[in-house]
Design brief:
This protein is α+β, with helices and mostly antiparallel strands. It is about 55% helix and about 15% strand. The protein is built from 8 helices and 5 strands.
């Protein structure tokens, strides 16, 4: 069933339902039914097609479960979701324990973010697991202060601080790896979004009588107004702060993994009205 056939049938149905003349209505309905029969499509399907095409998207909000309380890695999982969401025009509130994200935006943008996240979080976890198993992170040393007790010159014992080089802890390495992965994904999606919007402004200077740039700006304002009217968040999420220090070697490995990650579905990144190509 082609989109063109559905559109023709739907147009006839609109005319049938929009006239007060019962003879005209019957003629339009019969014409729609003949086309539908030839195309083997139910009239209800054609009506639904019309509703989908004519429905104006409106901002909404949705709670997205990231994981159970106490599960390791939730903060970096949230960072990945936020990175994807920003490229898809979402504003998010985060639960204090990082178990949920409350996403504000158009429903199709939220759908796209969830779809991308479901794929990318698996890639991130697999890549970080492989990196930790490789032991590469342990080649990086960090200086740590340790307190030792030694015999005093005049008897007794004395405590003194010494500084020793120790391998980076696996937990620190994993956090640094996943944070870098999420940031690289966010940068890739943001670049894809920017390039596509710039191309649209040039190639489609007008849409429905309004410039594309103006349409994009109006969308931003509408989303911002919706967020202010519906968000109940208080305070600032501190989940991006690393509790176990930083590992530069692991950060570089996570960035490389983020560059290699598959962005799927690539042709639907960055907005509910326009398909963007990820890279």
């Amino acid at each position: 069933m082609s989109d063109k056939d559905l559109t023709r049938i739907a147009a006839l149905l609109r005319k049938a339902e929009g006239t007060d003349n019962e003879h005209e209505a019957d003629a339009f309905l019969q014409a729609a039914q003949r086309l539908a029969t030839l195309a083997s499509v139910d009239l209800a399907v054609a009506r639904a097609h019309t509703e989908r095409r004519e429905r104006r998207p409106v901002p909404t909000q949705r709670a997205v479960v990231i994981g159970e309380s106490g599960k390791r890695g939730l903060r970096t999982y949230v960072e990945l979701f936020l990175a994807i969401g920003r490229a898809n025009n979402l504003t998010c509130d985060i639960a204090r324990d990082s178990t949920r994200v409350h996403a504000f935006g158009f429903d199709t943008d939220i759908d796209m973010t969830e779809t991308l996240y479901a794929s990318l979080v698996v890639q991130m976890v697999r890549a970080s697991d492989a990196y930790i198993k490789s032991g590469d992170f342990a080649l990086e040393k960090v200086i740590k202060r340790v307190t030792v007790t030694t015999p005093g010159r005049s008897g007794g014992w004395r405590r003194e601080d010494r500084y020793v080089a120790k391998p980076v802890h696996a937990t620190t390495a994993r956090i640094s790896f996943q944070q870098a992965f999420a940031r690289r994904i966010g940068a890739r999606l943001a670049q894809a979004k920017k390039e596509t919007e710039q191309r649209l402004v040039v190639e489609q200077p007008t849409r429905d009588g309004a410039g594309v740039a103006l349409v994009l700006r109006q969308r931003e304002v509408e989303l911002a107004d919706h967020y202010r009217a519906n968000s109940t968040a208080r305070g600032t999420w501190a989940g991006s702060r690393a509790a176990a220090g930083q590992s530069e070697r692991s950060r570089q490995a996570g960035d490389r993994a983020g560059r290699r990650a598959r962005l799927a579905p690539e042709r639907a990144i960055g907005g509910q009205r326009t398909a963007l190509d990820g890279g």
